[in-house]
Design goal:
Length: 140
């Protein structure tokens, strides 16, 4: 399993630095975010070091979200938020800070004011949407 010496999450996975663990199995670890955006903010990470979705195999990526779906129900029961945001940032352009893939589960409350609430409204250009869709389908 690949591990990076200078990666903070690889160190957490190896037990070299502590975390507040929620769940783990052979392939993934869930732990509380050290700087929570809201009460109950946690992260789910693969134990193997992958930087972004672009390097990761789809099965493992799916396993992260399957675990997250189970954990989300526990968070809902424990914290009783009004909702939750699930997000996973890929690359500096997407504001990823820690370059070890991680899925955020952020419990949300009405009026929490977090800057992740809504997409910027933009008017869609259907010709462009269809032509990009064609290019993506051609790669699948
Ligand atoms: P992103 O890379 O998606 O922007 O976010 C990285 C997340 O990792 C942040 O929410 C940050 O608070 C969290 N984080 C960074 N370093 C640590 C750490 O050492 N321990 C824990 N538990 N979380 C961390
Ligand atoms: Zn790592």
């Amino acid at each position: 399993m690949s591990s990076h010496d200078d990666c903070i999450f690889c160190k957490i996975i190896a037990g070299k630095i502590p975390c507040t663990k929620i769940y783990e199995n052979d392939s993934l670890l869930a732990f509380m975010d050290i700087n929570p955006l809201n009460t109950g903010h946690l992260l789910v990470v693969p134990k193997e070091h992958f930087e972004t979705v672009f390097e990761m195999n789809p099965e493992l990526y799916g396993a992260l979200y399957a675990a997250l779906a189970t954990i989300a129900k526990a968070v809902q029961a424990a914290v009783q938020p009004d909702g939750a945001t699930v997000m996973q940032l890929n690359g500096e352009a997407a504001s990823q800070v820690v370059p070890h893939l991680h899925v955020h589960l952020v419990p949300r409350t009405f009026g929490d004011g977090l800057p992740i609430s809504s997409w910027q409204e933009k008017s869609g250009d259907m010709d462009n949407i269809r032509s990009v869709a064609e290019k993506i389908r051609a790669q699948l």
